[in-house]
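G., the chain you wanted modeled:
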Amino acid sequence: MESFQVEYDHVDAVHLLSIKLTRFLSQKAFLSSKLVCLCIGTDRSTGDSLGPLVGTFLSEADESAIIIYGTLSNPVHAMNLDQIINNIKHAHPSSYILVVDACLGKYKDIGLIKVGNGPLSPGKGLKKNLPEVGDFYIKGIVDMMGTNGMYILQSTRLHLVYSMAKVISSGILKAVDQLKSSKE
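Predicted structure as tokens:
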């Protein structure tokens, strides 16, 4: 799957995101196993809450084809990421892992949702040395890169992060639903 990006406020953002995810999942024979959504971040930082918000929205949808790690009540972050990755490998060895995380970028890119093939390196923008994880990823650019990334993430607008999380979770759910419908 080639990389893809869409503005979170694009009128067709959910639809466009679901099309890309559907294509990727159908190439990976998703229907023979479950999708693990690893939603990385923390509820202690507005900008870094994108992943846990997506995980929470997904868990509220009660979609049985998705296994969710990382919600507002049980976040996956730098301190427990290694353990969660080990848990996933043990409990779901043949599942495909979609990683969702927030990131910082250029000012002009704030609000972009990027989808890509391959693993994601969480915490890279903050110079954290965390393990790469996932088969493909969705990352949302929630604010601009600066000299103090932690401060920037603390002061990121919640409305932007919340809105991006709604689009991402809706896109994931729509893709999974389309794949389930096509199999019936």
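The CA atoms of residues 148 and 163 lie 24 Å apart.

Shout if anything looks off.
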